Amino acid sequence: MHSPFELPLLRAVTTPPDTVSADVVVALFAGEPADVFHSRLPAAARSEFDAALTRGEPLADMGHVLVAGSAGGGRCLVVGAGAGALTPDRLRRAVATAAHWARDHRCGRLAVDLSHLTADVEVLTAAAAEAVVVANFNHGHLKAVAPLPPVTEATFVIAAGRTAALERGLVIGEAVNQARLLTNEPGNVLTPRELADRAVALTAEPGVHAEVLGPEAIEALGMGLLLGVAKGSAEPPRLLCLTYTPPGVTDGPVLGLVGKGITFDTGGISIKPADGMDRMKDDMAGAAAVIGAVRAIARLGIPRRVVAVVPTTENMPGGKALKPGDVIRGAAGITVEVNNTDAEGRLVLGDGLWYAKQKGATHVVDVATLTGACVVALGKVTSGLFGSVPAFTDQVKQAAARAGEAVWELPLGPDYKDIMKSEIADMVNSGGRAAGAISAAVFLREFVGETPWAHLDIAGTAWIDDARPWATKGASGVMVRTLVELAAGNLPR
Predict the structure, then answer these.
(1) What is the tally of structural domains in the chain?
(2) What does the longest C-alpha to C-alpha distance in the chain come to?
(3) Measuring CA to CA, which of 82, 191, 250, 429 is 20 to 30 A from 13?
């Protein structure tokens, strides 16, 4: 087995880019006037750039790569970054494109010219550093064949001085990769016990206290929803709780993060079709995002108290599995008529949300690969966002915007609650096909009461189906960045 990723050496310099010793020197083209761009291109690359312009190549298109000559002893790339002023997300994509090109061509030393940046330099440099780290991820670490070599060294040319942003980019990029690795692991490797154990190891940082509860402790808490889903599996469930208390922070809002941790989802008795079921190892991507975020929050020393809860189990059709028509009771005292055992994620999250509140969370966000309906509504590029308190929902939306992760808010009007009515219990667990993503969020809202809460449905964004120049197929690590940004921001009181 090979290493899933390696961390490159990151450094910042102020010397001209064509004097940096590197295998690949990257100039980012965002459609600015040719004479302006020429002034910062290495002289040996200018003629090829002019020729490409004359040929009509779409040089500013995101992900376009032009090998334009030599610089610093290596090749010079002109990489399209989209037209207009650079944003962190566009810069992240352009630099990732360059890093993937470098790996494909076995070039271990990369230099990126950022000397033209004059605004938001720290934020943009952090995004560029993160992109190189994330591009080093190896989805095929279980293969016998050795993977492409990583980028071992990345040099960023900046206008003046040195920047602390490289460390932030490194920490966040590494946390995203850890979330991707967890999500990619096959179900026979990443059982609920293994997920909890790895989470404890990954978050062994100053200020973090980890607690893992087994079936007996879960039962003692009255978590009948989590235990109900777990009944069909030979693997025992776990309830993971990570508490981060930064030094000197004793008051203020406590951010609760709850991640769906279904390590494999067959659908239970309401079994899924065979086609595509192998992907159901990614049904714990929400848990992976929460674990990765806690790791990054602690390593960055963000002054925010955080409580993270991961209810984790398999959803299997064993002899003791939940049956359609069963009624189970959660720790919050709410009874649920199970009319679809494949709507299991909201069950375990219900107990997880309750527990986050018990552990002191004043604001709660859950992250889950929850509904196919969200994929139908928003596709594979945007995560669904729901919230109970507009001010807090807006904070989550703004954090996602800063992180470059697309979200779209969907409604939670009072009339939707009727969809979840049961004749014999407080609720059913599935409202059917119509408004499926919304009815799932309506279900979750019942477990948070008046606590400000937001729900992120990442069913469409947790996995990349089609490779792009800046992203490979497989787990995306989505929402790690958003949760870190949210923790670093100001929560409404």
Answers:
(1) 2
(2) 77
(3) 82
